[in-house]
Each structure stands twice: as C-alpha cells, then as structure tokens.
Amino acid sequence: MGIGVGDGTWWIEGNRWCHSSKVIQYGAKDCYDMTREGDIVRLYYAPCTFRSSQLCRTGHIAGEGRIQ
C-alpha cells in the first residue's frame, strides 16, 4: 500500500473539511480550512487537538491543488 492509499472517511465539520484513516496514525483526525484563488485551492491545518495526527501544525499549509 502506497502513501495516500487506503480506506478512510471524510466529512464537513462546520466550515472545515476533515478526514480520518486507519493508515494515517491509526485513525488520527485532521481538519483543514480551505482558501481558493482562481483555480488554486489550498488546505491549511485547523487548530490541532489531541486527536490530530503528528503532522498537524495549526495554520500551516497542508496541501495545494488546481481545480480542473
């Protein structure tokens, strides 16, 4: 199984996109605030909690992508 592959769940919590997967630190929950500039979408870590992955860094960019 490669990075980013596996079963998990995602949901909207308030205005945040959240996800959890057993392949990411045994089901840690991370949520993100999103911004959009034209066709670029950026995900920023929402405030980290005790359930967040060790990757969580409140306010730091977590990912970026282009809408096609």
Protein model, in words:
The chain is about 0% helix and about 50% strand. By secondary structure, the chain is mostly beta strands. The chain has strands at about 10-15, 15-20, 30-35, 40-45, 60-65. It has a domain at about 30-68.
In short:
By secondary structure, the protein is mostly beta strands. It has strands spanning 8-13, 16-21, 29-37, 40-45, 61-66.
Properties at a glance:
68 residues; mainly beta; globular
List the helices and strands and how they pair.
Layout: E1 8-13, E2 16-21, E3 29-37, E4 40-45, E5 61-66
Antiparallel strand pairs: 1-2, 2-3, 3-4, 4-5
Q: Describe the biggest sheet?
A: 5 strands, antiparallel
Strand coverage percent:
over 45%
The topology string of helices and strands comes to EEEEE
Q: Which regions contain 5 or more consecutive residues with pLDDT less than 50? A: none
